[in-house]
Amino acid sequence: MRMFVRGEWISAAEQFEVTNPYDGSVVDTVPRATPADIESALCGAVEGAEVMRRLPGYERYQILHRAAQRLLERVEEFGRTISEEEGKTLAEGRFEAGRAAETLFLSAEEAKRIGGEVLPLDGAPGAAGKFGFTLRVPCGVVAAITPFNFPLNLVCHKVGPALAAGNAVIIKPASDTPLSALKLTALLLECGLPPLAINCLTGSGGQVGEALARDERVRKLSFTGSREVGEHLCRVAGLKRITMELGSNSPLIVMPDADLEKVAAAAVATGYGNAGQVCISTQRLIALDQAYHPLLEVLAPRVAAIRAGNQLDPQTHMGPMIREADAVRVGQWVEEAVAGGARLLAGGQREGTLYHPTLLADVDPNQRISCQELFGPAVAVMRAESLEHALAIANNSPYGLSAGIFTQNLDWALRFAREMQAGNIHLNWGPAWRADLMPYGGLKHSGLGREGPRYAIEEMTETKTVVVHTE
Ligand code: NAP
């Protein structure tokens, strides 16, 4: 595919391959953007921001709504592209494409709701007769840097709100998975988006992404990816608005009164989806002493029954990891945990990029498989003596994106909601659950700001205060 820069589909002297993570076959090739392409995208976006600023909200609504409808009609096709470039199963790809349409529908609706507030200025001393109101205005140019693991929906979570709010956007998709973003760009253009309003630049993060993050013409940087890159970008971005959606090692606490069948179902659904490459995947399962052994008995056979394989085979439950190096890393962390006293109850084998669904018991919380972000298909189970102890283990993390608890006890549930340091709290389900309309984001080193179209629009607009000095 070509990339879209300053209103045109262009190629470049150098191309790179997008490969299927399962077998390494080439899915497509994309251009490697040069510094001149980046400059051209930025100039185009500055012009595009002027066009978008003048486009009425209803027209922005219509474009996004049309795009959402057409995406729904093409869910199979988009779902297959996601699956081919990312490695998630066809069912997961289809599900993501459907969610991406929903994200665009939500963004379209919000385009009609961007208002300000009336300010009771006569409440200030000496301000009798004055009247004020606020206007919400677009930021201008939004740079959207996105990760590989949800190559369509996470792009929609930035592009949808950016356009709904009347901005121009420059997308820098992950180099492993740029095809979904390029197809989305084409879809939006087909639906009437002014060509200068969107750019999609392919090329390495260190070059393209960093140049965008540093540039003063970009007023808003919206980044989803690893904590290391996110922290680096915060240092170099300078004076601009920033949203950071970063990683996690999400915990799920199991209290003695939990329904263990439901816990096992939740642990499988939220621990191994997309081969564990989900920022809110269940990574640490912390069970209270009374629930510990019964839970392992119910859970181990379920994990062993997850069929890993070719993501394009409809019989497969879990596809490969994005890169072999990541599967090797997961293997090393599993081996390290076993050497440190953990028991391997399922999985532990690797074939190329495929890492079999793995369950470890008796994990020491200080092992890397527990205290760092794994981003792979293994769940580490550990025990706690009390809710207080479980919370101490769960909160002993630099991250705070999402967390869950299973209990029927209202006091325990509410104590968890108050004391768990995470931006998303789930009572009676695992941490990996998200409705695209909800405010979503992390505490601590999991990030800054919130996504979900309504909330992202707040961060992609700025407030002007207007004061009327009447006599
Ligand atoms: P990543 O390596 O940080 O890459 C994310 C994006 O940043 C890619 O487009 C990458 O481009 C770009 N990039 C890399 N280095 C850069 C630099 N120096 N300057 C600017 N951009 C740069 O993350 P990933 O492996 O794709 O995704 C996995 C991570 O994302 C995990 O930590 C996961 O938890 C997190 N994540 C968080 C959320 C959330 O909502 N909180 C959601 C999904 C994923 P290249 O691909 O070209 O390197």
What is the topology?
Layout: E1 3-5, E2 8-10, E3 15-19, E4 26-31, H1 35-54, H2 57-73, H3 75-86, H4 90-111, E5 118-119, E6 130-138, E7 141-145, H5 153-164, E8 168-172, H6 179-190, E9 198-200, H7 205-214, E10 220-224, H8 227-236, E11 241-245, E12 251-254, H9 260-271, E13 284-288, H10 289-304, H11 324-339, E14 343-346, E15 350-351, E16 354-355, E17 358-361, H12 368-371, E18 378-384, H13 387-395, E19 399-400, E20 402-406, H14 410-419, E21 424-427, E22 443-444, E23 447-448, H15 453-459, E24 461-469
Parallel strand pairs: 7-8, 7-10, 8-9, 10-11, 12-13, 12-20, 13-18, 17-18, 20-21
Antiparallel strand pairs: 1-2, 3-4, 5-6, 6-24, 11-23, 14-17, 15-16, 19-22
This protein binds NADP nicotinamide-adenine-dinucleotide phosphate.
Describe the structure.
The chain has a seven-stranded mixed beta sheet with strand order 14-17-18-13-12-20-21, with helices on both faces. A six-stranded mixed beta sheet has the order 9-8-7-10-11-23, with helices on both faces. Strands 5-6-24 form a three-stranded antiparallel beta sheet. The protein folds into two domains: 3-246 and 446-469, 3-Layer(aba) Sandwich (Aldehyde Dehydrogenase, Chain A, domain 1), CATH 3.40.605; 251-435, Aldehyde Dehydrogenase, Chain A, domain 2 (3-Layer(aba) Sandwich). It is globular. Helix 2 packs antiparallel against helix 4 (90-111), helix 5 (153-164) packs across helix 15 (453-459) and helix 9 packs across helix 10. It is built from 15 helices and 24 strands. The longest helix has 22 residues, at 90-111. It starts with a strand and ends with a strand. It has helices at residues 35-54, 57-73, 75-86, 90-111, 153-164, 179-190, 205-214, 227-236, 260-271, 289-304, 324-339, 368-371, 387-395, 410-419, 453-459; strands at 3-5, 8-10, 15-19, 26-31, 118-119, 130-138, 141-145, 168-172, 198-200, 220-224, 241-245, 251-254, 284-288, 343-346, 350-351, 354-355, 358-361, 378-384, 399-400, 402-406, 424-427, 443-444, 447-448, 461-469. The protein has 471 residues and is of the alpha/beta class. The mean pLDDT is 98.
